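From the pipeline queue, job 12 of 40. The input is one protein chain; the requested action is below.

Action: predict structure.
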Amino acid sequence: MDNGGVDLDVAAHAAMLVLARESRGMTQAELAQVMTRQSGTAVSQGYISKAEAGRLEVTGPRLAAYAEALRYPVAVLCADPELHGVGVGLVHHRKRASLGAPALRRIHAELALARMQTRALLTLAGGEHRHRFHRIVVDDFDTAADAASELRREWGLSPGAVPQLIPLIEAAGGLVLVRDLGARELDAVTQWIDGNPPLFLINALAPADRFRFSLAHELGHVIMHSEPGVTAVQERQADEFASELLLPADAVRIELKQGRLDLARLLDLKHRWGVSMAALLRRAATLGVVTDWQYRNLMVEMSALGYRTQEPSDLVRENPRFLPGLVTWLRDEQGYRPDQLADASGLLPDEFARLYVDNNDSTGDSTGVSPVEVMR
């Protein structure tokens, strides 16, 4: 594998070896097997363990073998994660309880490396990446719904439905990526490091019906929560924030009351408001539009029809536009070759193309966000 002529006398950074391996979803034993097979020299799980603990130095041919097995450039494995802002900062995620610790570690590692990649691209662009995110305090007097209402006012939203959420986040300076996170139990993960724009990593495997609500949920964490730890209180607040942001009480209550709320009407409202039928039904119950008995009956009916697993008539997925636009601008207007962009991002060219070019078709429904407008 070509590692761009990097001097193999340099040594790997132990913490980066851990991040790189976990981002690939590999155990230490699995990595040892791959390295043994690719290099033709026996590599033990014990060697991997000592390398990741910093008890031995990884250089030369063994470093090259490490890079080949993990499919990262040598320079990435040698980088100090603290200097690159990797692995620090508050992380939030919307997940189901069934997601195991190894899968969560992989996703957090992928988030950390995505932060490194996007930071490198922003640095190439020069200027200052402005953002308009700030914390909104939630306490006994100011609720999560109040925070969502305040954000709607700040972002100039009309009282009704939010047509598209990703362009709003990107226009405010947030970074959004859609990635296959390898697990269906987690919809989204976010990180906001002070002095940097928030990064939202959305699972491409998340159903389109859940996509926007999950993104709004993560936005709520970013806006309201500065303390570490995923608590039941924080999760309830993030759900309340998402509900008010996407289904503002004053507007949606009027619409929900206009006629009998059955499955056919929920399906129609789903496309009007851009959230799942289940989310609409929960909102109707919270606002007192339906009784507990009506709510339970409709949920039972949805379950019997399989709607709790897959609702009919998928919503159109929104796609990020800022980062793909930035890559295009750097290539076409600033003269960077694709291999230079890949190298700066800490990715091999084929993976860079897959993550930042090939899967980011700009012909969808999302309104584009110009990098020139955000980078000043």
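Job complete. Confidence is low (pLDDT under 50) at residues 361-366.
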